[in-house]
Design a protein that fits this description.
heterodimer; A: mainly beta; Immunoglobulin-like; Neuraminidase; 2 domains; 6 helices; globular; B: mainly alpha; Serine Threonine Protein Phosphatase 5, Tetratricopeptide repeat; elongated
């Protein structure tokens, strides 16, 4: 009897559902549909989670048809404006329309019971997939007390997010740079600062977790996995009285060093610990022949005034130093700040070695706090530089390449100007960027009320295997590899750590 | 077959009358909470005087809370506290929690075979009422203890034979409870151990439960959840560092009492049962004994009511009410409440600041500032040491919003967001700041969060509607003021004294009267009469047409001290101020007493003058 009732209800309910095709054929056309987030005409990887969206026009009922040249269309009928696409159907549709496009058609029915159809919009499906996982830091827009900072990983194919490490697990510690080698989940390095457990760097390789008894700033793995280039800096924050971005940062002093994992020793890189210059943000080229970094002349005397008087005149060049099996070559300038009239930062060579992606902003070394920050791409073969097409009027920075060099993930403050979100863009073989789209979430309204900021995205091909508790235990452990401070004309490492503490 | 006890009509009446009386009692408690305690005062103090219990109904928040021991009790606390915005809703929620705890204790005592159940079950309720009377916000402990009490009831009510199975079942319940209520599980473990030892006479089960509970907490807390060992045992309990910091000494003792009342409640019930005079098995109970019991019951009820009422701290209530009215910008209410405080010496720095803000906004600072106790540090961005981050940032936020220093206010609001979470007033401030800075999308993020909170939903809807409509924001006078006086010149914030910051602001907007009053108030408090004389022109630019009393008094002091005349152009003066100054001088010179004696002598007549403050460094209306 129960089964009869259930079957009856199913028949009745399916009978009540509108015939989508008929509606779409008969409905009057009502112009362009407004959706949020804006996924219209974006290029997406074929392995991305559904682009769930919300229809901004008010209606009683909504019909959505998602279709491509191949594959069966996805038909959705709902009474709420949030459109949540079933993940399996979505993935099947994308797989069948690789290197093509899919269309989304929306119809709404208001209180007058008349259906209105909107012009369908296209989404381009690229042939190249994106790396499966995205690792990023989530924190409050202001984080001076390290109350709620965590490093998370997100499966891009689904909406699953997990915490790799959270600062509350080691008494409100700070987590900063996390680095992976060639988009692989291992080896990895995470720098931490903790009042209780000290500043250190956790690195994982071959299933082994080690704790370095010193903090390494921005880090980058040499492709051999034997060398870790890092910058050590005296970074300080200050605030502005009137400009839209309240916070600002100056690196009063900085240098670049390296840590040799086999020899377990740290050292200076010749020419990159100049007391009269600021060297920071190292990044290895994919072939390991060059170490790229940002460099600027120091415009002030040691720590006399903060912020220094000429902080707004500080412009970094992008330089590189060659490296060959333990031997360092000459430093050469790749992008001069004079060329763009901007401070050029965060060099990231593409995995195929053809492009160099960097951020340029008005001054200084911290583009996230400057609305002028934009992404630029340099063709290393021709030396041509251009601003990426996906830039916005807000800060665009903290970029990362996918392992196939076709996708970029970067942090952008659009559209709020305050809360940083992660955006994805496709880079074609000529270096053209597609329209960027925000990292999709299960709830289309997710970003509307998300009070955290994303930064430091890193794409990796698989998830980090180390459990949260294993990492925490390593941090809390008293066993650490002691590293001699790098002594040079610039302040020593321990001094930097003290300066870095807030 | 056991013989049925002889029916006792009087005891039946008592049994049936008990429940209506208890319902009446809890209704009375609800009324007391709503009318006397006013949970809305607790609501407005969250994130400032109490930790803000975060509650967001989204999936991420639920997952985050589920992943930590005690997270559920924190989540429920957040959920319950959201309803404190309204006195009646708040009273009903607290009464509901008290009733659940009472019912749990009642059943627990019943399962311990205690005949006297009501009084021991009422003990935790009394402690909780004491805490609410002190505005200690013990909601999380109530929830945790209620869950612990009911978990114990479930354990004892399910008949399981065999000590090992019982112990395993007990350990399962303890593990589940640890995830729900964190370190308070130890109270549950103690209840179970006491019951198994003393009531059920199963020392073996108790013997397994003791190491079992420790092992479970150790395993779940330190191994699975990677907590530090000590943290694993105290997490989400009053001993947790995050909670302990918000409890003063008395609150800690009351908390200990609350926990002890739950822990030993069954034992007390049993002890009272054993100690109570037994009625003879045959015949009716003695009338005098029944009368004595009733009298004792009435006396205890009266005593408890008196104690609870005596424990209600009306001074704290007024100060919280001042804080709430200040946050809402109801300046007249602030001044009315300040007038109701009998002993001004008990005003906290936070209350004095609110009173000063009320005087500034009503234009009375120069007239009445020293009619209230003052502290030289009050207006200097609330730079008092040893006060909580929440209070410090909240008050700085208020000051910066008063001054329309939007970037500084934004910094404070986001610091609060970091240290306290999305507190309603912080979200409102963030929204307001971003709207004043024309950053509407950022404002919407804060407003969308406010929409999820029942106490702020209406406000958020109103703002969102205004954001959508053209020119909707121009109608708001406060927003208009913030935009009018916002900082124009961008430069790095330097480590400056408060007056220099204010001077910079006034240089940009000479008509920013609030900034001028803050500056003058600061000079008065720091006894810089020469600065008041030097910056007198600012009063004219700010729209003053007369010289306020205290500024006038400061000028008289300056002229008297330096023997230099002060040019006062364009400001009307009150001659009675000069008379008062002369009288003060003559009385001060005529009294032959030590400094303390002189202060006492002058306080009665000149306690509210600036001369008194200038001479003794404090207001005479202490």
């Amino acid at each position: 009897m129960i089964w009869v009732i259930i079957v009856f209800i199913c028949i009745i309910s399916s009978g009540c559902r509108p015939k989508v095709e008929a509606i779409l054929d008969q409905a009057e056309l009502a112009g362009q549909v407004q959706i949020e987030p804006d996924y219209k005409a974006v290029t997406i990887p074929s392995n991305i989670a559904p682009l769930n969206f919300a229809i901004t026009s008010h209606a009683d009922r909504y019909l959505v048809k998602i279709y491509g040249q191949d594959g069966s269309p996805i038909l959705l009928y709902t009474r709420c404006p949030q459109i949540r696409v079933p993940i399996r159907q979505w993935q099947a549709l994308l797989n069948q329309n690789k290197a093509g496009q899919i269309w989304i058609e929306v119809a709404t029915c208001g209180r007058d019971r008349r259906w209105r159809r909107y012009e369908p919009f296209a989404i381009y499906v690229a042939n190249e997939p994106i790396d499966r996982c995205l690792v990023y830091r989530l924190l409050r827009p202001q984080y001076n007390y390290f109350k709620d900072i965590g490093i998370y990983q997100r499966d891009i194919q689904s909406f699953h997010q997990s915490c790799i490490l959270h600062g509350s697990q080691f008494r409100d510690g700070c987590l900063n740079c996390h680095t992976f080698l060639n988009n692989r989940p291992e080896p990895m390095a995470i720098a931490i600062r903790s009042g209780q457990f000290g500043s250190s760097c956790i690195y994982a390789d071959d299933g082994q977790l080690e704790k370095l008894g010193t903090r390494l700033g921005h880090t980058s793995w040499h492709p051999s996995g034997r060398l870790l280039a890092f910058s050590a800096f005296d970074v300080r924050m200050f605030f502005h009285t009137a400009r839209p971005d309240v916070q600002d940062v100056v690196e009063m002093d900085s240098l670049i060093g390296y840590y040799d994992l086999e020899g377990r020793k740290a050292g200076r890189i010749p020419g990159l610990a100049d007391p009269n210059r600021l060297e920071t943000q190292p990044c290895w080229s994919a072939d390991g022949r060059y170490l790229y970094f940002a460099c600027a002349p120091k415009l002030w005397q040691a720590n006399k005034q903060f912020p220094p008087e000429r902080y707004a005149e500080l412009r970094y060049d992008i330089q590189r130093i060659s490296y060959n099996d333990g031997y360092w070559g000459q430093v050469e300038t790749v992008v001069s700040s004079d060329r763009l009239g901007k401070s050029c930062l965060m060099p990231r060579p593409s995995p195929d070695g053809r492009f160099l992606l960097f951020t340029a902003c008005d001054y200084g070394c911290f583009p996230i706090y400057q609305a002028s920050a934009d992404l630029y791409l340099m063709d290393l073969n021709t030396g041509q530089i251009k601003a990426l097409e996906c830039n916005s009027q807000f800060s665009d920075s903290w970029h990362t390449w996918s392992s196939n060099g076709r996708w970029l993930v970067f942090a952008s403050k659009r559209p709020t100007g305050r809360f940083t979100r992660l955006y994805i863009t496709h880079i074609d073989t000529d270096g053209r960027a597609s329209k960027a789209f925000v990292l999709p979430q299960a709830d289309p309204y997710f970003y509307d009320r998300f009070l955290y900021a994303y930064n430091l995205p890193e794409l990796i091909v698989g998830p980090v295997r180390y459990s949260n508790r294993t990492l925490v235990r390593t941090i809390r452990s008293k066993r650490a590899i002691q590293v001699d401070s790098i002594t040079s004309a610039t302040p020593v490492q321990t001094q930097y750590q003290q300066f870095g503490q807030r | 077959m056991r013989p049925k006890p002889a029916s006792n009509p009087q005891s039946n009446i008592g049994r049936y009358a008990r429940w209506p009386i208890l319902i009446l009692l809890f209704v009375a408690i609800a009324v007391y909470l709503a009318k006397a305690i006013e949970p809305s005062l607790i609501y407005s103090s969250l994130g400032v005087f109490h930790a803000y219990p975060q509650f967001q109904g989204d999936r991420e928040s639920l997952v985050r809370h589920l992943s930590i021991p005690g997270g559920i009790s924190q989540l429920l606390t957040g959920l319950a506290s959201q309803w404190y915005f309204d006195n009646w809703y708040g009273g009903a929620v607290i009464t509901g929690l008290l009733a659940v705890l009472f019912a749990g204790m009642y059943h627990l005592i019943e399962l311990h075979h205690g005949r006297i159940k009501v009084w021991p079950a009422t003990l935790p309720v009394i402690f909780a009422l004491f805490m609410y009377g002190r505005y200690d916000h013990p909601t999380q402990w109530l929830i945790s203890l209620a869950i612990a009490a009911w978990a114990a009831v479930i354990y004892l009510a399910i008949p399981i034979h065999g000590p090992v199975i019982s112990a395993i079942f007990g350990c399962m319940i303890l593990g589940l409870c640890y995830q729900l209520i964190g370190g308070t599980t130890l109270v549950l473990a103690a209840i179970l151990v006491i019951c198994e030892t003393a009531i059920r006479k199963r020392p073996l089960v108790a013997g397994i439960l003791v190491p079992g509970s420790i092992c479970i907490i150790w395993l779940v807390g330190t191994w699975w959840k990677a907590l530090e060992p000590l943290q694993a045992f105290v997490i989400a309990s009053p001993l947790d560092k995050a909670n302990l910091a918000w409890l003063d000494t008395r609150a800690r003792w009351l908390c200990a009492g609350l926990f002890a009342a739950v822990l030993f409640g069954p034992c007390i019930g049993l002890a009272l049962t054993l100690l109570s005079p037994q009625t003879p098995n045959s015949g009716r109970p003695k009338a005098w004994l029944q009368r004595l019991r009733r009298l004792a019951d009435v006396a205890i009820i009266v005593l408890i009511c008196l104690l609870v009422l005596a424990g209600h701290q009306t001074q704290t209530k007024y100060q919280l009410a001042i804080h709430k009215a200040g946050m809402e910008g109801d300046w007249q209410a602030v001044l009315n409440l300040a007038a109701r405080i009998k002993d001004p010496g008990q005003l906290t720095p936070a209350s004095i600041l609110e009173i000063d803000r009320a005087l500034i906004h009503t234009g009375l600072l120069g007239q009445q500032m020293f009619s209230y106790p003052q502290d030289p540090r009050i207006l200097a961005l609330f730079s008092l040491e040893g006060i909580g981050q929440g209070l410090q940032f909240a008050k700085r936020l208020e000051i910066h919003l008063d001054l329309a220093d939007l970037n500084a206010a934004e910094q404070d609001a986001y610091e609060l967001l970091e240290v306290q979470g999305p507190v309603p007033f912080v979200l409102e401030a963030i929204a307001r700041i971003h709207m004043a800075k024309d950053q509407y999308e950022a404002a919407k993020v804060a407003l969308q969060n406010l929409l999820t909170l029942p106490g702020a939903r209406q406000l958020a809807r109103g703002w969102l509607a205004r954001l959508e409509g053209p020119g909707g924001l121009d109608l708001d006078p406060e927003l208009k003021r913030l935009r009018q006086f916002r900082r124009l010149r961008d430069e790095p914030v330097k480590d400056q004294l408060f007056d220099q910051i204010l001077l910079d602001m006034i240089a940009e907007h000479p008509n920013n009267r609030v900034a001028v009053d803050y500056l003058m108030g600061y000079y008065l408090l720091t006894r810089q009469d020469e600065k008041i004389a030097a910056n007198l022109d600012m009063l004219l630019a700010a729209g003053y047409t007369f010289l306020p009393r205290h500024y006038h008094q400061a000028l008289l002091i300056y002229a008297d001290r330096t023997r230099q005349p002060v040019q006062v152009r364009g400001l009307a003066m009150d001659s009675s101020v000069i008379d008062e100054f002369s009288r003060f001088n003559s009385v001060a010179r005529s009294v032959k007493a030590d400094r303390a004696g002189l202060a006492r002598h002058l306080a009665s007549q000149f306690g509210d003058t600036y001369m008194y403050y200038y001479l003794f460094g404090l207001s005479g209306v202490r």
